[in-house]
Amino acid sequence: MLATPRRAPPALLRPGALLGAYLALHVTLSAIGAVTGVPAPPNVAGALIGAYRNVSGAGETYGFFSPSIPDQISARLQVTDAQGRTRTRTFGFGHSEFDSHVSTLMLATQKLRTYDLLARTLATYALNDAPDAVRVRVVLTDHLVPSMRAARTGARTRTHDFYDATFTLKGDAR
Questions:
Q1: Residue-range definition of the domain harbouring residue 51
Q2: Among 70, 89, 71, 69, residue whose Cα is nearest residue 79
Q3: Same domain, 87 and 24
Q4: pLDDT value for 19
Q5: How many structural domains is the chain composed of?
Q6: Are 49 and 85 within one domain?
Q7: Given 65, 128, 129, 139, which residue has the most CB atoms within 10 angstroms?
Q8: Are both 44 and 94 inside the same structural domain?
């Protein structure tokens, strides 16, 4: 008995076509949201954007385009030597290859919310990098980016120091 050939699914139901349609919808809704703001709910485009924002989580942190990206954090290390001289180092902006690696570590730390571990790691690095160091103060700062809606009305990125700890070598009571 010969098998009857299977019919190909309609062109719109093929995986490539479905993915293409989704991407086209995503780009269209993103462009509408970026150019005109979110229209009022009675508007069809506004209803689509509102539904898409609810489903995708858009409007959080970085806004419509990248809702899962957390706000950037930076670390400020104040390294003090035995004579009381202080040097400040800042990490989290990718100014060097090492800083880029530290930035990646800070992003992972932020997702896991293990700030004390990050601070101890940076303090250990600073104490080993500067042989004359006796104390390191680590300050972690959030760079809070407004949503697209808030940015359109003039809101700007603001900073917030959310972690501050001092680490000393054993025996240094200053």
A1: 11-56
A2: 89
A3: no
A4: 76
A5: 2
A6: no
A7: 139
A8: no
Question: What 3-state DSSP class applies to 24?
Answer: helix
Whether 91 and 77 have beta carbons less than 8 Å apart is answered as yes
pLDDT tens, 17-45?
777 777 777 666 666 555 444 444 566 76
- CB-CB contact of 165 with 137 (8 Å): yes
Q: Is residue 5 part of a domain?
A: no
Residues 50, 101 within the same domain: no
Q: Is residue 61 part of a domain?
A: no
List, for residues 92-130, the tens digit of each pLDDT value.
876 778 777 787 778 777 767 788 888 998 999 899 888
Q: Hey, what are 47's tokens?
A: 């209803």
Rounded Cα distance between 53 and 73, Å, is 25
DSSP track, 92-153: SS-SSHHHHHHHHHHHHHHHHT-HHHHHHHHHHHHHHH-TTEEEEEEEEEEEEPPPHHHHHT
| Residue corresponding to tokens 């993103």 | 30
